[in-house]
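Follow-up to my earlier ticket, as requested here are the two runs.
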Amino acid sequence: MLNQTATYALRAMAYVARHGRERPVLSQTIAEEMDIPKNFLSKILNRLVQEGLITSTRGSKGGFQPARDPKTITLREAVSPFMNLDAYRNCFLGLSTCDGSCGLHKKWQPIQQRMLKLLDETTVDKVL
């Protein structure tokens, strides 16, 4: 359901939430532990910093830490900078003009609602 970038972002965010509370974690460590390409991870981490979800500290004792208590960061916050969740709100195919007449529409609506509820009600401390 999530695109690859959003999946990587969620894995990285969850890793930082779990291991970065006491001391910053290095991007190299996150890349290796979460099996995320380093160059791609760098862009993801930068965006998470911009979104205010993690902090970045430079230097020999630097790395990444959660910007807030991970119990207050929802999955939606972690993935929405990397994919347009609204595109799938009404249409399984992500079409901007959907009249709901296709056979998938009625089957998709309950799934979509459960997925959005999961993203809204689950926090990153519950992942991994």
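Run two:
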Amino acid sequence: MQGRASTVALQPEAGGVRITWSTVGGKSYVVQTNAAPAGGSFTHNFADFSPLIPVSGPGESTTNVLDPGAITNVPARYYLIRLGP
């Protein structure tokens, strides 16, 4: 997937929002989020939300993580998926 954008989807479900994205085997990922300031503007203060998520096997696949309670968070959150170590 080098040089290509990853597909990311947010799906509301009971108890939160499920974040699903495209992955590559042999890589690890961490989902980060931030608390947007009042008024819904953007901030660059992201912090790790998920533990390190290793993806085994060759090729591309998808994985996901649930952000419980995200539906009730005010203001909205922003998500960033980064490669782990």
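The only thing I checked on run two: Residues 8-83 form one domain. Let me know what else you need.
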